[in-house]
Amino acid sequence: MQQASNDEIDLAALFQALWAQKLLITLVTLSVGMLALAYAFLTTPEYQVQSVVRPAAIKDLDALNRTGVYELTPEQAMQRVGASLDSYDSRLGFFRANQGLFEALRQPNRSLEQTFENFNKQAFKMLQPDSKKTDNLSAYVGVQLTYPQGVDGVALLNGLVGYVVQRERERIADDFTVVIQNHLAQLDSKMAAARASYEAIKEARIAELLEADNLKRAELQDELKALRQQLKTHRDNRIAQLDEAVRIAKALDILKPTTPSALAEVGRVSQGSVIRTEVNNQQIPLYFMGSEALEAERAALRQRRSDDFTEPRIAQIAKELKLLENNRQVEILNKRENQDLFLKDLAIWREEAAQLRSLAIDASNLKLVSVDQVAIEPLSPIKPKKALILALGLVLGGMLGLFIALIRHMMRREPAALSLSAGAIS
Hints:
Layout: H1 2-20, H2 22-42, E1 46-55, H3 62-65, H4 74-85, H5 88-97, H6 112-123, E2 124-127, E3 141-148, H7 153-251, H8 260-264, H9 291-303, H10 312-323, H11 328-335, H12 346-358, E4 369-373, H13 386-425
Antiparallel strand pairs: 1-3, 1-4, 2-3
Helix pairs in contact: 2-13, 4-7, 7-9, 7-10, 7-11, 7-12
């Protein structure tokens, strides 16, 4: 009971001691509060703005997609703009084009580029929906900018968004131009290849036709030579036969043409008019023609210079050789001036190339994204929070004042306790 009474007395004494030092506690609390208030008012305020873009309507990109050579969905366009907003290169490009907006950030010992480097790391924050959500209604890309007082953050952020969108328009226009140029180059390559192929095919066809003519000509000449040799052999054989028949006819004293039966009746006396008819199924020997006729035929054969007229095929061969002197197909192929008329797919490629050259897009009117939220002037800074800082200053000041008062009380009690102990001992 005595110990509990002492504790109550000590607590009461402690309260009385602290109350006795209320002025000190109040002064410390007010001092710390004033310091906090000075910090709140002297610290440069920081503001925060943000801009959000969403996918554009399908109709906004219809003109680009209808060209058939470049396809871009609204989601892809928004992703491109978002990636460019997050790109350091895009932000640096905007900074270099609008250095006046960053002039307030300049520091004595840093270049403007170094100042922007530090500002870029701390000021920008990308805003994106939760990746776990698949609802297209939540698709957006945003940029949040935190900037100190003196910087026109609204103009800076809206300018950055406009700069990025315009830059992506120019990139799409450049990509569109490159795609068309690549298609045109591919078509030109196809047409050049088709022309080269046509020339090769034409030359091969001409060579084939000429080769066929040369082969046919050689075959006809060989046939003509063989026929003439055959006719000459037949003539020589005929002359040999006539020589033999002439000798036999002279031996039999047959001058005029006769027959075997007529030859048998030689020397008989005929009475009245007699008509002889001879039926014989055997060939009459040549010498019955009589030596005069045989010699006349032999002389004619020996004087003959050519046997061509005796064989109709020789005239036909001469006709065919004459026709082979000029190949009309080769002449027509060589006289072709506009070879493009004979290329089957060339007209299709030319039409496609003409369509590609006529394609054009106005990138300045190309709406890539829909700006759902533009940056507007904030009503109040996000830093410093003056009321909170003042409240924390007062709380910390009060705690510091109480701590100082408590220390002073403890230091005063210690000499008194030592004095009491010394009196009790004496």
